């Protein structure tokens, strides 16, 4: 790995990054750190269609479609916009979002506008932020396959319930 120093010298050394500071040296083992995945939609970019990703996304441009980021963060930046539904762990809006927003944490920042449905466990609106629509309870999204599998386990081939009944005499 590389050593980075204040005078911008770079040297190679054993999977370790070292940054010199005036107080003390800071050493970080890069092999132990998870790399953050961030997708950036540029200001001059317009995307029509759904986006599914495994990482964070920052939207400076326009998306006309649904965005699914699972357990990650969707950030609608200043002048950015999404027309469609958003599903993520955290949604930060400083641009415009029109649609259903489903996340554990939704925050509308100073220049943000959410027009639609908000489904959040934690919902905050900063001064200057705008929310037009309705707020609904947050329900954690579950895998449809696991629901389907459970329903097949509860019913036997004859269509009867498999529950055991105890009869006391």
Automatic annotation (TrEMBL):
<feature type="region of interest" description="Disordered">
    <location>
        <begin position="143"/>
        <end position="169"/>
    </location>
</feature>
<comment type="similarity">
    <text>Belongs to the bactofilin family.</text>
</comment>
<protein>
    <recommendedName>
        <fullName>Polymer-forming cytoskeletal protein</fullName>
    </recommendedName>
</protein>
<dbReference type="InterPro" id="IPR007607">
    <property type="entry name" value="BacA/B"/>
</dbReference>
<feature type="compositionally biased region" description="Polar residues">
    <location>
        <begin position="9"/>
        <end position="19"/>
    </location>
</feature>
<dbReference type="Pfam" id="PF04519">
    <property type="entry name" value="Bactofilin"/>
</dbReference>
<feature type="region of interest" description="Disordered">
    <location>
        <begin position="1"/>
        <end position="23"/>
    </location>
</feature>
<feature type="compositionally biased region" description="Basic and acidic residues">
    <location>
        <begin position="143"/>
        <end position="153"/>
    </location>
</feature>
